[in-house]
Amino acid sequence: MGNALICWNEKCKHAMLLPRATNPEDQNNLSWPKGHDEFSFLCPSCRRAYVYKIHDVRHGPDVTASDLKVFRLAVPCPEKGCKGHLEMRTLLPSDCRDPWQEFQNFLKERSSFASPISCSSANGHVLPARRIECSGPRDCAGLDELWS
Asked: What pTM does this model have?
């Protein structure tokens, strides 16, 4: 049995089936990377991003290596003078050739953060829910090595 994150959007509730983590938290939860408290996931169905924690993982169907992979996007923090970045993840087909373009397409349509997101900067400020712009270089998106 695999694991999934269920979209927080009441009108969506899409099950985002997670592949196995490269270094799983424990044997009961093979889909959550060890040592990480939370991740922001962009739902591929409703295209809204929410913050998820390990206790949000639900049991779901198995995901094989050929199905979906976790891709990561890092964009510059919109706070004036901040050098940090915002990270989000989503599930894309494992043969996705241009994850940056996929994120661009998601964010152009109607995506926004539906929950506050923490910046990666040293002061760790939290930004309120807002629309995210993907204006960084193409190498800011790629396969997330925390998942296999």
From this structure: 0.82
Residue 111 has pLDDT above 60, yes or no: no
Partner residues linked to 6 by β-bridges: 15
Lowest mean pLDDT among 29-33, 58-62, 100-104, 141-145: 58-62
| Residue appearing with tokens 């989000």 | 88
Q: How far is CA 4 from CA 19, 41, 88, in A?
A: 9, 11, 16
Q: CB count, 10 Å around CB of 31?
A: 23
Closest CA to 91 of 60, 62, 67: 67
What would the mean pLDDT of 103-111 be, rounded to a whole number?
A: 70
d(CA 145, CA 103) in angstroms, rounded, equals 17
Among 52, 45, 40, 38, residue whose Cα is nearest residue 106:
45
Residue 81 in contact with residue 109, Cβ under 8 Å? no
**Pairing label, strands 38-42, 49-53:** antiparallel
Helix (H) or strand (E) holding 115: none
Q: How far is CA 18 from CA 68, 89, 111, 145, in A?
A: 8, 11, 21, 13
What CA–CA distance (Å, rounded) separates 30 from 40?
Answer: 18
In angstroms, how far is CA 121 from the centroid of its own chain?
18
